[in-house]
Amino acid sequence: MRAWRRLRNLWRAEALERDFDDEIAFHFEQRIARNLAAGMTRGDAELEARRHFGSVVRAREGMRQARIADWVPAFGRDMHVALRSLRRQPALAALAVLTLSLGVGAVAAVFALADALLLRPLPYADADRLVAIVDTFRSGPPRTTPTIPELLDLRDAVAGFDAVSFVDARDFQLGGGTEPARVVGARSEASFLRVLGVVPALGRLFSDNDGAPGAAPVAILTDGLWRANFGADRGIIGRRITLNGQTTEVVGVLPAGFAFDFISADPVSVYVPFPMIPVYTSRAAPFAGVRRVMAVGRITAGVSYAHADVEVRTIGERIAAAHPEVYRQGSDRRDMGLVMRAERLQDFLFGGSRNTMRLISVAVALLLMIACVNMGQFLLAQAVERRAELAVRGALGATRGRLTRQLAAESTVLAAVTAVTGLVQGALLIRLLQMQVAARDPFVATRIDMTAGVFLSTIALAFAVTLLCNAVPLLFVTRPLPLQALATRDVAPRTSGRHVLIAAQVAVAVTLLGMAALLVHSITRLESGDRGYAIDDVMTMRLRVPLRVQGPGVGVMYRQYLEQIRTLPDVNAVAMADAPLPLWPATTFAIEGAAADAATLSAQQSGYCIVSPDYFRTLGIPLRAGRFFTDRDDTASPLVAIVSEQMATTFWPGRSPIGRRIRAGEGPRAAEMTIVGVVGNVRPALQLEPMPQIYVSYLQQSEPNMMLLIRARTRTGLPVQAIKRTVWSVASDQPLFDVRSLADRVTSMTAEPRRSLAVLLGTSAVLAVLISGAGLFTLITYVTVRRRREIALRRVIGADIGDVMRLLTVPTLRWTAVGLLAGFAGTAAGGAIMRSTYAGIAPDDPALSGLVTACYLVLALGALCAPAVTGLREDPAAILRAE
């Protein structure tokens, strides 16, 4: 009979049995009638009929097996028995399920993060065909964006792409409000939005004529800006707004939900055409070699990534051959080895997170392994308790398959409970992860969710690991049990295997805890200690000079800002810089009279800061030799520089660098300058030690994007509006934005990139410690229960509490010590991996590792002793009488 009909007959079982009974009764009467016709008496006729038909009960069971899917109610009965068996030890069962579900929930959160970053396609049309164009060099920047002339040459030559476009971000002043407002705008080449497959909600996208020399200014608003600043007015198309002092026509509004914020730390609010003018597009222009844009291409349908990459590489070789003067550096004019590449856009945007994802994935996998070990300990202990019971069932006729089915039902119950609990905990962890990521990357935060794929993966994982945890106990309890074992109740397996598992989970827990402690210690060192500058009572605000101001006028306007702000009574000192603090050493410099070959130059790296004269006084950076900048260090004077003490001692050991000449700066800013001062060391962000730094005058190096640094006279703070009004008295159209204390900015620069990792790794470590502690507790509880009679006998014949405690805990404590030693080594290995992956990770500290090990040992002793102490409170005489 077909399976579906047997399932349907489950609801017709009573009717089928009635029909079967009627049919049996009919045939029975027919047999009796035939026997009576043959001359038998009534009694003999009925007796012969019963012998002929045999057991009616067995026949009815055979009918049920043939016509009804009886395994369904049988499985239900098995599930009922499984739930009843779990209720025998509810506390230990709940502890085992809770620990395993914590591991499953943590994996669900990592699944969600990996899905958001690496697996789920980007929210653009045919996102699988989008690529980023990048430049790499055999001798030079390892990975960077192309120049605009390179992209124009590539677009003219490429055949396997539907389009190649580019975009960059700029600060824009949006007029018409109560004060000059700053928004982040994207300057996009005309086809960029079409490459992403965007369909405007209102109006149109850019045409090929937009952005051409002489073209009228136009803009496209994002949905957020349209709703927030223009009241979602559908008549916005054709209206004119003021952007950077220019009257600009609004030609489109982008759809809700569209965002391409990867080019800026802040969300993009408005799109304008990229100005396709010679200053950007001509190779002869001074800034044409600046790598300012992000390039995106759309591969032609049917063309593979590999083919597109090969084509881009080939064209890159032609570009390098056609313009060799652009791709040579150093005094020996060595070829930099340009290699243009095409990468999947998603890999380009999120590929940098792979190292973090690997580290988190390893941590969570180790956490899940500990949880599995703990669940296995519980199931093995339960299996030992039930082995005699299962042996009795086998003696009464239960087949090995029947016993296996019963145990499988119990595994299914555990898996179901673990899956549900893991999903709930996973949802909570995903929510916490969203909150953690939202502050740094709102786009990624919106993609982290309990999607159908994450949901199904979590359920599958919960069932898989639970069934895997049941494998060893299942093999153990289904082995034949000697009859004498039933008489002596000696059914306990050897404990060495469980002790090895305990050592393994202790080692993993200590490793994770040590790595988390090292990360927190590194963040603490980055945020404290001698930075070389004072951050208290310093406020910062960013500005971008209006576009109407060009050339030397930029520095003049900056000087006027500073002069006016100094007159405020609450201001102690004020300065300007292109960055609040010296940055990572990434500027190559040459020393006059010294070697200038490529190898030497590559080793001469320093930070490069554009600052005003009072920058050092505002931040409390001391002068070691020479002088500070003055307002006389302008474009009419020889170029000068100030270097840090670290740079002076590194490159002029035992000598004074004052009066020495160096050549530094990137692109058009590269120039020869004379060192006029040496200042104290400043530790850059994400660095534990000071690095070489070069400072140049803001009047000699023009920079439109700067930052005000203002030190207050008192701790009452600074009047932000008064400072803004002072600046507006010089330039009424000057936007001031991103107002933050220097302390807050330093924290975000140094700690935030590592804080998310510390939270995730620390959470995994805490969970691992709790789970491994629960495993120790479970093991000693099991051992104590199994040896109750032995313990009672030992106490009766004179063993004291210390003897019993040593008996119960010392074997496990030995293996715990082995795990601690392995965890100590694992912490050292994990620290080496983190230092090779992340900047600013402190070196190994034996004292820190020892503290972590000692803390875990205290927890382990508590988990080991608590159940043993509880067992010792029982009366030995009562135990022996009960036994």
What is the tally of beta strands? 24
How many domains comprise the coordinates?
Answer: 4
- Amino-to-carboxy terminus distance: 53 Å
The gyration radius over C-alpha positions equals: 38 Å
Structural class: alpha+beta
The coarse silhouette is: elongated
Discrete helix count? 29
Percent range of helical residues:
40-55%
* Low-pLDDT regions: 483-493
Question: What characterizes the major β-sheet?
Answer: 10 strands, mixed
- What proportion strand? 15-25%
Name the assembly state: single chain
Mean pLDDT: 79
Describe the protein.
With 883 residues, this protein is of the alpha+beta class. The protein folds into four domains: 3-69, no CATH class; 139-336, no CATH class; 355-527 and 752-882, no CATH class; 546-733, no CATH class. The protein is built from 29 helices and 24 strands. Strands 1, 2, 3, 4, 5, 6, 7, 8, 9 and 12 form a ten-stranded mixed beta sheet that branches. A hairpin with a 2-residue loop joins strand 6 (240-243) and strand 7. Helix 7 crosses helix 11 and helix 13 runs antiparallel to helix 18 (496-527). The two termini are 53 Å apart.
